[in-house]
Amino acid sequence: MIRVFIADDHELIRMGVKKVIRTSKDIRIVGEACNIEEMLQFVPQVKPDIVVLDINFPENDGFAGLVTLRRLFPDLPVLILSMFPEERYAIRALKAGAAGYISKAMAAEELVAAIRKVMSAGTYISPRMAEILALDYRNPGHASLHDRLASRELQIVSLLGSGKQIKQIAAELSISISTVNTYRIRIFKKMGLRSNAELIRYAVEQQLVD
Predict the structure, then answer these.
(1) Average pLDDT over residues 126-130
(2) What is the average per-residue pLDDT within 50-66?
(3) Residue 30 C-beta-side C-alpha neighbours within 13 Å
(4) Which residues, listed in sequence order, are joined to residue 52 by a DSSP beta bridge?
(5) What strands, in cross-sheet order, belong to the sheet with 100-103?
(6) How many domains does the chain have?
(7) How, if at all, do strands 2-7 and 27-33 pair?
(8) Phi, psi (5° rounding) for residue 30?
């Protein structure tokens, strides 16, 4: 029996994951958490075989939960379940130690197969992820401008690209307006952009907008 722990801040997502997993006799849910603190509290208690983790908790940088889990429980595989498509975060997640990455849009189709694959072979690579990795291998110099960004910076690019104002972003991420502006300046410098219009156009072209 594969013991699964779910960590996601959306109750509906956790319910959906449990519904999908209930169809499999060899997999069961042993615990769940709505934030990173709960996850770190309960994981040692229930001792799961694998954690299904959202990387976008509002109170933390996108990869904080993954990095912390890998540090504290290096033998515990972590499967990322994200609202973002593979193009945005998948390679970064694998480099940070994730055993696999699937988008929530494909969860019903891929989740059970991904859990079984990770438990039997150590890593799950979706068909789309395989294409991205193949492109990266064939064209090592093709790296996108946003590959230079840290996780929080990439998150802010996504929010700016969707047309949100600095004040809205600060409230959503629970950080100050000046901090958002600092990130914005840093993003422009790293990516060689000069205006919000350029950033929005780039975010849309690269499918970084939700």
Answers:
(1) 76
(2) 78
(3) 17
(4) 6, 79
(5) 27-33, 2-7, 50-53, 78-82, 100-103
(6) 2
(7) parallel
(8) -110, -5
Domain end point (choices 93, 118, 137): 137
Q: Is the pLDDT of residue 148 over 80?
A: no
- Kindly state whether residues 91 and 128 are assigned to the same domain: yes
Instruction: Write down the pTM of the prediction.
Output: 0.72
Task: Give the residues across from 33 on adjacent strands.
Answer: 7
What range defines the domain where residue 179 resides?
A: 145-205
Shared domain for 166 and 122, answered yes or no, is no
Domain boundary, last residue among 119, 137, 155: 137
> Is residue 210 a part of any domain in this protein?
no
φ, ψ for residue 32, nearest 5 deg: -150, 160
pLDDT band for position 198 (cuts 50, 70, 90): confident
State the average pLDDT for the chain. 85
Does some domain include residue 184?
yes
Secondary structure letter of residue 124 according to DSSP: B
Say which residue the tokens 């079984």 belong to. 116
Query: Alpha-carbon distance 20 to 31, whole Å?
Result: 15
> What does the chain come to in residues?
210
Instruction: Say whether pLDDT at 52 is over 90.
Output: yes
pLDDT at 137: 54
Domain assignment present for residue 74? The answer is yes
- 121 phi and psi, to 5 degrees? -125, -5
**Which pLDDT belongs to residue 142?**
47
First and final C-alpha spacing in the chain: 36
d(CA 67, CA 50): 15
